[in-house]
Amino acid sequence: VERLHTLLRDAEQTGRPLVMGIVNVTDDSFSGDGLKGDTAAAIAQAKAQAAAGADIIDLGAESTRPGAAPVSFQQEIHRLVPVIEALRHDLPQTLLSVDTRNAGTMRAAAVAGAHLINDISALEGEGSLDAVLRTGLPVVLMHMQGQPGSMQQAPQYADVTAEVRDYLAGRIAACRAAGLPRDRILIDPGIGFGKTVDHNLALLQRLQAFRLLGYPLLVGVSRKSFIGAIAREADAQRRLPGSIAAALWAAQQGAKILRVHDVPETMQALDVWQAMSRGGLEAEKF
Ligand SMILES: Nc1nc2[nH]c(SCCc3ccc(S(N)(=O)=O)cc3)nc2c(=O)[nH]1
């Protein structure tokens, strides 16, 4: 928890958000279980992202993109633990986050040396709040409407910003009441998780509303479909310019952690943005 707070304090002082690189440890290799191949590939990708300046690496073994099917926690552990153990050794300076909804995975990840739990279901899963309490780790509480398999079919809100903020306030209260200390809670509006394009844009326009809850804000816009919906799709796979634009907007609105696929590109964009925005801070003094 201390290392994360040191980084968050630096982010506060420099006015520059932390960068969380995304590494998926999924079985997309064709050779049967293919674990070896996937482990090596994930380790190499994490090393490249750390070398490019990522402060945190977010490791996930379950795709939670729309339509994805759930993965058993045994399968998650089987894929994630070797990577966590290797990266604890190879990247001692980089914080390791684990993207999971499963209590069993949270426990195993903590034992293996993870520093942060990133839960898209905000610790609503069976036994997950208790598991995180016992691990002593900080946790990202993210909003999702519905489940990944069906969340994009008919997202529905009367006031998306108020409802997402109130949901997160409720989850914060539940975690605090169970004994989770303030300094182990981060929040995230869950861009793309049960939201239309307009819902995502409303949340991003009103990102400051989440700062009023008083917890560090994590935002994940990288390569998400709302970008393709509002912008020309130069290279549909990466949506890189749009992802960078949305990331800088989130930084401007006070996000403390940006969750991204493209670390070198995001770092360069933040270098340029910071040079101007810091200047802006100086200018305000005159
Ligand atoms: N805290 C946190 N964790 C995350 N894990 C993921 S995985 C992304 C799954 C996905 C892919 C694509 C779309 S879409 N339909 O908008 O293109 C939605 C969800 N994302 C996030 C995020 O943001 N925060």
Element string (H = helix, E = strand): HEHEHEHEHEHEHHEHHEH
The rounded Rg comes to 18 Å
Question: How many H/I helical runs?
Answer: 11
Q: In angstroms, what separates the terminal alpha carbons?
A: 37 Å
Q: How much of the sequence is in beta strands?
A: 5-15%
> Mean pLDDT score, rounded?
94
Q: Looking across the biggest beta sheet, what order are the strands in?
A: 6-5-4-3-2-1-8-7
Portion of residues within helices: 40-55%
Structural class: alpha/beta
**Low-confidence sequence ranges:** none
Main sheet attributes: strand count, strand direction, barrel closure = 8 strands, parallel
The kinds of small molecule bound in this structure are: the ligand Nc1nc2[nH]c(SCCc3ccc(S(N)(=O)=O)cc3)nc2c(=O)[nH]1
Structure report:
45% of the residues are buried. This protein has an 8-stranded parallel sheet with strand order 6-5-4-3-2-1-8-7. The N and C termini lie far apart (37 Å). The chain has helices at 2-14, 35-51, 73-90, 103-112, 128-135, 160-177, 197-205, 208-211, 225-230, 240-252, 263-284; strands at 18-24, 56-60, 95-99, 116-119, 139-142, 185-188, 218-219, 257-260. Helix 2 packs across helix 3, helix 4 (103-112) runs parallel beside helix 5 and helix 10 packs parallel to helix 11. Helix content is 48%, strand content 12%. With 286 residues, it is α/β, with parallel strands linked by helices. The chain contains 11 helices and 8 strands. Strand 3 (95-99), helix 4 (103-112) and strand 4 form a beta-alpha-beta unit. The structure holds the ligand Nc1nc2[nH]c(SCCc3ccc(S(N)(=O)=O)cc3)nc2c(=O)[nH]1.
